[in-house]
Structure prediction request, 124 residues.
Amino acid sequence: MEANDNIYTLLSSDELHSAEHLFPPVTDSSEITVVCDRDDFSASLIARAVEDADAHLLNMNVTSADVGLYRLAVDLRINHRDAGAVIRSLERYGLHVAHLLSGEDSITEYARQEINDFLAQLEI
Prediction:
């Protein structure tokens, strides 16, 4: 790559705006969806709530999910597999947690799929 090349010229428009580019997979993390009023949205407040639980905010994206006329859905990724402390902190700050996919959940889902595949091979 030459010095004047940048990532935006290396990726197509579709790749640049894909969900995986905006929210790339990270091991040992949890994904949380928070819902709040549009007027109450504050990225710094959300970051503070996450950091108060001794976690790091890895990604934050406002989504186009339909959660009401004056409400926003915000997807977060934190660096903890157990998101319990972060969820409690977000709720203390007045934010509603609508969805959680923790690292432990994804391992459980992976194990469930592996078991189902194995049982299908055994034809049980």
In short: Residues 36 and 114 are 37 Å apart (CA to CA). The first helix runs from residue 7 to 10. The chain has six helices and four strands.
